[in-house]
Amino acid sequence: MMKGQGGQSCPHPTVLPSYRPTVLPSRFHGMPGEPLTERQLRVLEAVVQTYIETAEPAGSQTIASRFGLGVSPATIRNAMSELEDKGFLYHPHTSAGRIPTDRAYRLYVDNLMQLSPPSHEEQNTIRQGLPQARNELEEILRKAAQVLSVLTQELGVAVAPALDSLVLERLELVQVGSDRLLLVFNLRSGVVRTIFVQVPVTIPAEVVHRVTGILNERLSGLTLKEIRTTLGDRLRDADHSESGGRLLNIFIEEGDDIFDLAGDQGQILLGTAQMLVDQPEFSSNSRMRDLLDLTERRDLLRKALEDRRGGGLNISIGAENRDARLTDFTLVTSSYRAGNVTGVIGVLGPTRMPYEKIIGLVTHTTSLVEGLLE
Description:
Elements (H helix, E strand, L loop, with lengths): L1 E2 L5 E2 L11 E2 L11 E2 L1 H17 L5 H7 L6 H13 L3 E2 L8 E2 L1 H11 L7 H10 L7 H16 L2 E5 L8 E10 L2 E8 L3 E8 L6 H15 L4 H12 L6 H17 L9 E3 L3 H4 L7 H12 L1 H9 L6 E5 L11 E10 L2 E10 L4 H19 L1
Antiparallel strand pairs: 1-2, 3-4, 5-6, 7-11, 7-14, 8-9, 9-10, 12-13, 13-14
Helix pairs in contact: 1-3, 1-4, 2-3, 5-6, 5-13, 6-13, 7-8, 7-9, 8-9
């Protein structure tokens, strides 16, 4: 028996399914239309699976003894050499084995792997890790990122929706001084934000109460973006008293700023990075520093994740990531949608990850989060 990722035992030998020769898109090979043979595909899959499970370069003897390929180690070695020439494997100087390249992982994900749905135990863990009832959106997403970190041994990530798309449920105005009001935004999905509104003179409490009612009557049920574009028409002549009209005019004249929470473009929520710390890829001090820097750079992660809203399942491997600081990482994400609320849930980890398992966990978690948001 052979120990795999997470200490699980792998059967010996593993018999892989057969494949027809596959003509790959141009990004998978140097010569247009050049096919990979069935043998090359089977060897490539065996190398990828072995490296994912052991974090050690895969040699021909290991592949021959572990997988039922029906060919000699010498034949496997030749196939590995051919795959290296095509850019699917590379050969570390310190080892006789091969390691998959980003191109190999992409081929594996797109053409070779068999998706593994979460087990009943994993599904129960996800359900128990998420809030048991409708809750504040950001708390739901925080819990989702945490449970994905635990189950995948990677870094769980989640992006809250951009506030511009959220519907205003209720506004509250609270006097906090002679020249300031606290404006409380109660947005759909349990999101709450507050800002201060400056007023030139003291506004009587009964006027503040009356204007609060007008704002709620005319603005609730709209998104913040809709409010900004129609605010003047909705509030003009809504209160004919001098003090009420003065307060409403502040909202009309400064509405673009008051109702613009664009600075909150979607909070980035992370699970625990401790799971990644234990991965062999981060055993050196320099790689550990890179990882810690990445978890602190929320702007970097936000930029990498923002484009994935509404895009369903998205997997970017190594150099496929636009930012060079993510070239050693894979991002597996799935977008969630509930009404006009959209965001992203997923995991970040080294390119060596059990893709078939992680994809199933991410998509299942996303489905449960959507159910809690509806």
